[in-house]
Amino acid sequence: MSLFVQKAGILTTIQDGGRTGSRSLGINPSGAMDRTAMSLINLLLGNNENEAVIEMHFPAGEFVFEVDCSFAVGGADLGAVLNGIEIANWSSAIARRGDSLRFTDRQNGNRAYLAVAGGFSIPEWLGSKSTNIAAGAGGIGGRRLQAGDRIGFLNPITCKTQRLGPTMTPKYNRFPTVRVIAGAEFDELTAISERTFLREGFKVTNESNRMGFRLSGMPISLLDTNRMVSAAVTFGTIQLLPDGQMIVLMADHQTAGGYPRIANVISADLPLLAQLGPGDGVGFRLVSIDEAEFLLARREKDLQFLRLGIRFNV
């Protein structure tokens, strides 16, 4: 009862909702880059929303089902096909033993997620199944998936085919404006730099990965260039580098950093950021903490419909 990895893909790992409670030990949380996509397809299948999924980049892997089960794909549209038949994103489907799932063409986004009904059988490390490649722990041997791997199923089941309503799924694009709240050092930006940060666009560079997205654009600066003491950071923290460029910390971020924290992307907009890749762009809009909390509560309300089993039959 497993999923066989026929081809591995460029960067394919096991991820879940992340590893919490260990940052004081210097262990970063890892987890899915697009946690909304992970939650949506898990809930679509009746799983716990933080159940482990397979995170894929394009070119993605090819998988063979070794048992009948229901599955769903969400996040980036990488052209999923089952035995040559197109599978729509954000919909559940049934695979039979011997069926092959592959991904043919990237339409939008950069990270797709595969979940199976009942979940994957992956040992936990510090309370999470997520792969931490730097630590060599979690997932399958603490590494990216390889051809020949078999990923066991907890309880493979087939269920009614369903899809998510269009209002529930994120609206990805290659140049989103993401909302941010002011960081601890935001008020130390020069007036010109503050305007640049909020009015200009920035490009995601090739020096980007699951730890952080390096951005390029008009340089910005602080009023005072004195070095700061290292302080806590999190997913979405925007740090200002000494050269005037920025880095946005992502799922594999470190637990603390010594660069100024000028802003933090709000939780509701992290999926838009997580689906960007090199060459894509991003702009920023400042909002209050109250607005950030309202937007997060609205997203949680949408997820609550799925928790209650409200979906659409196909």
What does it look like?
- The protein has 2 domains: 2-165, no CATH class; 177-300, Cyclophilin-like (Cyclophilin).
- It is an alpha+beta fold and 314 residues long.
- 14% of the residues lie in helices and 30% in strands.
- 43% of the residues are buried.
What class, by secondary structure content? alpha+beta
Overall strand count: 22
Compute the average pLDDT: 94
How much β-strand is present in the residues?
A: 25-35%
Rg, Cα atoms, Å: 20 Å
Run of helices and strands: EEHEEEEEEEEEEEHEEEEEEEHEHE
Structural domain tally: 2
Q: Reading side by side through the largest sheet, how are the strands ordered?
A: 13-20-17-18-15-14-21
Q: What's the N-to-C terminus distance?
A: 26 Å
Treating each run of at least 4 consecutive H or I residues as one helix, how many helices? 4
Form type? globular
Percent helix, as a range, is 10-25%
Question: Tell me about the biggest sheet?
Answer: 7 strands, mixed, barrel
Which stretches are low in confidence, meaning pLDDT under 50 for 5 or more residues running?
none
Q: Quick summary of this structure?
A:
With 314 residues, the chain is an alpha+beta fold. The protein contains 4 helices and 22 strands.
